[in-house]
Design goal:
Layout (H helix, E strand, L loop, with lengths): L23 H5 L4 H10 L4 E4 L36 H7 L7 E5 L7 E7 L3 H15 L5 E3 L6 E6 L10 E5 L5 E9 L4 E5 L11 E2 L1 E3 L5 E3 L15 H14 L12 E5 L8 E3 L4 E2 L5 E3 L1 H15 L7 H18 L14 H21 L16 E3 L22 E2 L9 E2 L6 E2 L4 H6 L7 H24 L10 E5 L6 H16 L6 E4 L6 H10 L4 E3 L3 H4 L4 H7 L5 H4 E5 L5 E5 L7 H4 L9 E3 L12 H6 L2 E5 L7 E7 L14 H5 L4 H21 L3 H6 L4 H14 L13 H8 L6 H23 L12 E4 L2 E7 L9 E4 L5 H8 L4 E4 L6 E7 L5 H12 L5 H16 L4 E5 L1 H8 L8 E5 L14 E5 L6 H12 L19 E8 L5 E8 L3 H20 L10 E7 L10 E3 L1 H6 L7 E4 L10 E4 L1
Parallel strand pairs: 12-16, 20-30, 20-31, 21-25, 21-26, 22-25, 26-30, 32-38, 32-39, 33-34, 33-35, 35-38
Antiparallel strand pairs: 1-2, 2-8, 3-5, 3-7, 4-5, 4-9, 6-7, 10-11, 12-13, 14-15, 17-18, 19-37, 23-24, 27-29, 28-29, 36-37, 40-41
Helix pairs in contact: 2-3, 4-5, 6-7, 6-8, 7-8, 10-11, 19-21, 21-23, 28-29
Length: 1069
């Protein structure tokens, strides 16, 4: 039987000259360049053909004709370059030097890989040194050895400047004398043998050792199965700590002498920014840098940006890096004093230098030319800490060159307690205009507006219900789709229930069969209560895990395994036939009983997830005659996933052979071989930036290759495929032992490739058939493959009614694939808005602040935000809703003994809730801001079937092409404020960016029911963005809010509301 590891053998047809048949040994651990070279090049290694004496091979030794020159490979031209020889170059060397050894050119061409060459003659010492590397720098999956020899080579990654100048370290004997064992750090400009032989003639070849993986199994990771990105990234501090540990245990000749730079570690609360001090640096008596500050600042910038590399790709993140560098520098260096050079005397001077260096280093890190630091927390024993007391620094954001501000103005009305308000950094203000101010005010009483909005909403919904009832599938027309673009919190759901009740009475059509899909289960109970009170027959559908009688189902869902097989599956009997097995608890199971009798329901309630649920129950599909969707639903349609590129080199299990495969003569080995070949082609095409689908469409065996890849990835390592109705907890543990290793993601990858391949073939048969210019659904960024797609919608054969208060209508039309009849209902929002401009409340900043606090360290950011909430609560004696990012909600709740009138919620968690209609103030901290990769996935899922799909925001170099645009916000007094915000040039990117930010902010404030309340709600937006069209009363800063003195004035106000709202009396400020 053929071993599974044969997957790493090359394909003869893909090489310029077909090599001889490769034996089993070559498939397990290749020894020759013709087998290893092309595969390694496809994974991103800089590979060279070398002789056993480590000299470059004569690539003319195996010439095609007499004119081919006989000369060594000129490999030095790749030293220091961002990439090594291309796959095409490597493949041209294969027929000329097929039997050569395969070497890795270290350093920048191989993504900054270096080699710890352990030439240690004692096996116990060699093993212990490897353990020290693993304990401090993390275990590397790349360990090369030779059978019978204790010598080993470990591959890691590091920035060239992080490696010490001294690279050879001789170990001592037990008596202290120098031994013949040494450790050598091979780096940029050197190479290490990956495959081949150490000596001429017979001798064991180099091999790669198996390592323990996260799945609990030992597996071989080698350069023919994974790229350089799998090597752990280490820092100068970790290397020094490793050498210190080896010196303490065995002794290193000359270690501790002044041959290495001094290490100084920051004693900042974060403790994550150590740097190697240059020899030219001079410290004062407090340990601050007094001389050599320019070089120290550059080293500090590089350390911080590489450590917090996730911030280097956005403008907001760069501002945050600037603030961090500024704070660290003024704490660790002598600043704000007069010096002969005139440097670093003022904030402006320091900020200018900081900005310049941060932008330059961030650009290098984002492009991959400088590798990031993943774990820099291991420091050497000689590392000392220097510093001075912390100093709080707030770095002002960049100010537009044309920014001109008005004189200071006073905050009137609801925000009079904020007192005199001056200019705000980064914000341009225009003077007030009385004419514009009149148009931006709202009526003194709510009665007339509330009555009009209620009437228009009721009329629009009634018309939508009539349109749905009037349509018949026998008409031959397309089912209509209507949309009410009303304001959130204006009673659309109540109006719908009333309209359905009236329709049932007027039309007398029997059960209505309307499916209503609110965002989540928590929105359903109130709708059901209102509908039942109106006399409608209501049924509620819930998820399988909450109802199923089989105890294994919730355990499966909790671990991300589909429970469908636990209810019914097809298994192979002892005779080899496929038989259907049904769960013995199926009869009477609530999870299935909920679908019986749906044909008698007027209103079926189910969350958004049912709109795209695969394999929808036939009883539900037959019972639904119309669909009503409440709020935006693109989140269940637009999907994305990521997986590492080395997934395509993973050996998978042989899949069960389906009847369809058997019918065309495919066996398990055939499917495995087809996937191997398909993966090799895919990796090569991805690295070269080629169109994957075209590669397979151009091949006669393209369909067989892709079909084999889909079969193996979907069935070979699938956990879900091994679930059956008699699976118990012991069986579950066995299933969990299977490492799917992104099997579902790989399956989706191949299905996307196959879909486009079929389109390309169809276009070749029909010239009028248009194929999109490229496929943005598959994108390679570094060592990660990004996927995007649209899930298919259920119930598209019946009419739809959308109740969207905040969704983009163009996005809905693209998802539904049709024009939407839209009715708009608008009204002035009874709210006063204060923009508390804060540029440091991003998800990353909040997460870091929570981490600091959980570690017992103070967090200035959380203290500042809690202080703002406290000030607002002192001004407003009524109920207050505080909305913050979910990562910080629990931490802020626990910072004070908050009064019960303060309610807490998180972004994306309040849509459709009716619990906060009586709040007096809303404090919104931060906003939802998608990452560049998320935006690319959303835009790709929307535009992939256009003739010219939208280009990615993130380039192949990993850098996002953000643009900056001025956002103009109208002020209540008739003036305007404008400030810069990140944006993008793509239409769908821009729509999804606005949709994501605006929808959440609008929905959060809408919980206060700003249209139907008499007393306006006070909204405090703590951040740097407000939804488009929002009228702002005042723009201020956190410092001014904290310094203001609350002046609550309690008065009794009788609220004026329409008859359907309960009147109330409450205390307001």
């Amino acid at each position: 039987m053929k071993p599974e590891i044969r997957a790493f053998a090359p394909l003869a047809e893909d090489l310029p000259t077909p090599p001889p048949q490769v034996d089993w040994q070559e498939r397990r651990q290749p020894t020759r360049f013709k087998h290893a070279g092309p595969i390694m090049a496809a994974f991103g290694w800089a590979v060279l053909p070398c002789l056993v004496d480590r000299s470059p091979a004569l690539v003319g030794d195996y010439q095609f004709d007499e004119t081919t020159p006989r000369k060594p490979l000129e490999w030095r031209r790749w030293i220091g370059q961002p990439s090594g020889p291309t796959l095409a170059e490597v493949e041209t060397w294969v027929p000329r030097a097929p039997g050569a050894n395969t070497a890795i050119l270290l350093g920048a061409p191989s993504q900054s890989v270096f080699c710890a060459d352990l030439d240690i003659n004692d096996a116990l010492r060699s093993c212990r040194v490897r353990e020290i590397f693993a304990e401090i720098a993390g275990p590397t999956p790349f360990i090369r050895t030779r059978p019978g020899s204790p010598h080993e080579a470990l591959l890691y990654r590091a920035h060239p400047d992080d490696l010490p100048r001294r690279t050879a370290f001789v170990l001592r004997n037990e008596d202290g004398s120098p031994s013949t064992s040494k450790i050598e750090l091979l780096k940029d400009g050197q190479h290490v043998m990956a495959y081949g032989y150490r000596h001429e003639g017979y001798c064991p070849s180099y091999e790669w050792l198996p390592t323990l993986h996260a799945n609990g199994h030992f597996e071989v990771t080698q350069p023919t199965t994974a790229g350089p990105g799998r090597a752990p990234l280490v820092t100068a501090e970790q290397i020094e700590a490793i050498l210190d540990a080896i010196d303490r245990e065995f002794g290193i000749v000359g270690h501790g002498e002044p041959s290495m730079p001094r290490l100084v570690v920051s004693n900042a609360p974060s403790g994550d920014y150590p740097i190697i001090m240059r020899s030219s640096v001079v410290l004062d008596d407090q340990g601050r840098v007094e001389d050599g500050r320019e070089g120290f600042l550059f080293d500090l910038v590089r350390s911080i940006v590489r450590t917090r590399h996730d911030l280097a790709t956005s403008e907001e993140g760069i501002h945050e890096l600037e603030s961090t560098v500024y704070g660290e520098f003024v704490r660790r260096a002598v600043t704000h004093v007069t010096t002969p050079s005139g440097k670093f005397e003022s904030d402006d001077d320091i900020m200018k230098d900081v900005r310049d260096k941060v932008v330059r280093v961030a650009r290098e890190v984002a492009s991959g030319r400088i590798p990031p630091i993943q774990n820099g927390k291991a420091y050497g024993t000689r590392s000392g800490a220097v510093g001075r007391p912390d100093r709080k620094v707030v770095l002002a954001p960049r100010r537009p060159a044309s920014a001109k501000q008005t004189e200071a103005y006073r905050s009137d009305g609801a925000f009079a307690w904020l007192g005199q308000t001056g200019s705000v950094a980064g914000v341009t203000m225009t003077k007030d205009d009385a004419t514009l101010a009149a148009g931006r005010s709202f009526p003194s009483t709510v009665g007339e507006t509330s009555e009009r909005v209620g009437k228009e909403t009721k009329t629009a919904i009634e018309q939508g219900v009539i349109d749905m009832l009037s349509w018949s599938p026998t008409d031959g027309s397309v089912p209509p789709v209507s949309c009410l673009r009303g304001l959130p919190g204006t009673g659309k759901t109540t109006s719908l229930v009333t309209a359905l009740d009236a329709a049932k009475s007027d039309f007398g059509t029997g059960p209505l069969g309307y499916l209503m899909a609110p965002p989540a289960h928590r929105n359903i109970d109130q709708i059901a209560a209102d509908a039942r009170a109106s006399g409608l027959e209501v049924r509620i559908l819930r998820g399988r895990s909450s109802l199923c009688d089989n105890p294994i189902v919730p355990l499966l869902e909790a671990r991300g395994i589909s429970p469908a097989g636990a209810c019914e599956s097809r298994v192979r009997s002892s005779s080899g036939a496929l038989v259907t097995v049904v769960c013995p608890r199926r009869d009477g199971c609530p999870a299935f009983d909920q679908y019986t009798g749906l044909e008698t329901a007027d209103l079926i309630l189910a969350p958004h997830a049912f709109l795209t649920m695969p394999k929808i129950d036939p009883g539900l599909k037959a019972a639904v005659r119309a669909v009503v969707v409440d709020e935006a639903f693109h989140g269940v349609v637009l999907q994305s996933a990521t997986f590492p590129v080395d997934t395509l080199a993973r050996v998978r299990r042989a899949p069960p052979v389906s009847p369809g495969d058997q019918a065309v003569g495919r066996t398990a080995d055939t499917l495995l071989d087809n996937r191997i070949r398909a993966c090799r082609l895919a990796v090569s095409a991805l690295k070269a930036g080629a169109d994957l689908a075209t590669v397979f469409a151009d091949r006669k065996d393209g369909e067989a290759l892709v079909s084999g890849a889909i079969a193996v990835s979907s069935r070979g390592d699938s956990r879900s495929a091994r679930v059956h109705p008699y699976t118990d907890e012991a069986g579950l543990q066995s299933i969990l032992g299977i490492d799917e290793y992104h099997g579902r993601e790989e399956t989706r990858f191949w299905k996307i490739v196959d879909e486009r391949r079929r389109l390309i073939l169809a276009s070749r048969a029909d010239p009028d058939f248009v194929v999109p210019s490229h496929d943005p659904r598959i994108r390679l960024a570094g060592e990660t493959i990004h996927l995007a797609w649209r899930d298919d919608l259920n119930f598209r054969s019946v009419p739809w009614l959308l109740l969207d208060g905040s969704a983009d209508n163009d996005i809905n039309e693209r998802i539904l694939g049709c024009r939407i009849k839209t009715t708009h209902v608008s009204a002035p929002l009874r709210q006063h808005v204060a923009l508390v401009r804060h540029t440091g409340v991003s998800q990353t900043r909040l997460r870091n602040a929570v981490t600091e606090r959980s570690a017992g360290r103070p967090s200035d950011l959380l203290d500042e935000l809690a202080g703002i909430v406290e000030r607002v609560s002192q001004q407003h004696p009524g109920e207050i809703l505080v909305v913050v990012r979910g990562v910080a909600e629990a931490a802020m709740r626990g910072m004070r003994e908050w009064p019960s009138r303060i309610h807490w919620g998180h972004h994306n968690g309040l849509k459709g809730l009716n619990d906060y209609a009586r709040v007096e103030a809303v404090v919104m901290i931060g906003s939802v801001f998608p990452s560049p990769d998320q935006l690319d996935s959303l835009a790709a899922a929307l535009s992939y079937d256009d003739a010219y799909p939208e280009l990615s925001l993130v380039g192949r170099d990993g850098r996002p092409a953000w643009t900056r645009e001025m956002v103009t916000v109208p002020m209540r007094d008739g003036g305007d404020v404008a400030f810069e915000a990140p944006s993008t040039s793509g239409e769908w990117h821009k729509r999804m960016l606005t949709q994501t930010r605006d929808e959440d902010l609008v929905q959060c404030v809408a919980r206060s029911r700003q249209v139907h309340r008499q007393e306006p709600v006070s909204v405090y937006v703590v951040g740097d963005y407000v939804p488009v069209g929002t009228i702002v009363d005042v723009v201020t800063t956190p410092e001014r809010v904290l310094a203001a003195t609350p002046k609550p004035v309690v008065e009794t106000v009788t609220t004026e509301r329409p008859a359907r709202f309960k009147p109330g009396i409450r205390a307001v400020a």
